[in-house]
Amino acid sequence: MLIIGLTGKTGAGKSTVALTLKEKGCYIIDGDVIARQITEKGSPILPELQKAFGEDILDENGCLIRKTLAQRAFSSKENTELLNSITHPEIKRRCENEIAFAEKSGYKTAVIDAAAILEGDCKDLCEKIVVVHADKDTRLQRILRRDGITYEQAMTRINAQKNDDYYLSRADIIIRNYPPYNIEEEILKLEELIG
Q1: Which residues does 109 contact at the CB level (< 8 Å), separation at least 6?
Q2: CB-based contacts of 142: which residues, under 8 Å, 6+ apart?
Q3: What does 104-127 look like in DSSP terms, one character per residue?
Q4: In the predicted model, what is the mean pLDDT of residues 161-186?
Q5: CA atoms of 46 and 49, how far apart (whole Å)
Q6: Tens digit of each residue's pLDDT (9 = 90 or more) over 157-168
Q7: How confident is the model at residue 117 (pLDDT cuts 50, 70, 90)?
Q8: Nearest to 10 by CA among 172, 125, 173, 177
Q9: Using H for helix, E for strand and C for coil, what is the string for 138-170?
Q10: What residue ranges do the domains of the chain occupy?
Q11: Closest alpha carbon to 31 in 70, 69, 4
């Protein structure tokens, strides 16, 4: 079974590409869903996150206050790396379980859709890396519309990620998702890969 790592900077349009690949019969492993699952109430990594980012990242019921964690984790590259060092090993374990399920279910291709795949352990599971790319202004506008956050919060997220060259130089295939490129035409680059 072919395993593709799908990544890109925040606001680049990974979700759009993942949805299209799902429609084409690929099994999608959503890194955001897994990241939420591993931080649900009672998760063994919550105490580690508290130690790193403060006791008050959990509410009185023991549930993660995601906005508070995000503000602290994305406030610097060091904090983002600290978050990743805590969460990535568990994310990789869950991805491996999902891949095993996809293989057992007869899928020919599994796609790990994850923003931080290049920084984490999951890249070792992938045969090909697909990077969805968009320029900074396009990504900023998408984040502001999508997440309903302030300009400053959006820029903090953007600046917490590595530069474009980091992503582009590690890509086997680049999907350009900004004018004048057409996302549907760009996705055709993956047809041969996924059969």
Answers
A1: 1, 2, 3, 4, 21, 25, 26, 27, 193, 194, 195
A2: 11, 13, 134
A3: HTT-SEEEEE-TTTTTSGGGGG-S
A4: 94
A5: 5
A6: 898 888 999 999
A7: confident
A8: 177
A9: HHHHHHHHHHCCCHHHHHHHHHHCCCHHHHHCC
A10: 2-190
A11: 4
Q: In this structure, what token pair is assigned to residue 154?
A: 């959006």
Residue carrying the six token digits 């403060």: 54
> Do 118 and 166 touch, CB atoms closer than 8 A?
yes
Residues 6+ apart with CB under 8 A from 19: none
CATH architecture designation of domain 2-190:
3-Layer(aba) Sandwich (3.40)
- Count of helix runs (H) and strand runs (E) in the chain: 10, 5
Residue 127 has pLDDT above 90, yes or no: yes
Q: Are 75 and 57 contacting, i.e. CB atoms less than 8 angstroms apart?
A: no
Q: pTM value?
A: 0.85
Among 24, 45, 22, which residue's Cα sits nearest to residue 34? 45
What is the arithmetic mean of pLDDT over 50-79? 94
- Whether residue 16 is predicted with pLDDT greater than 80 in this model: the reply is yes
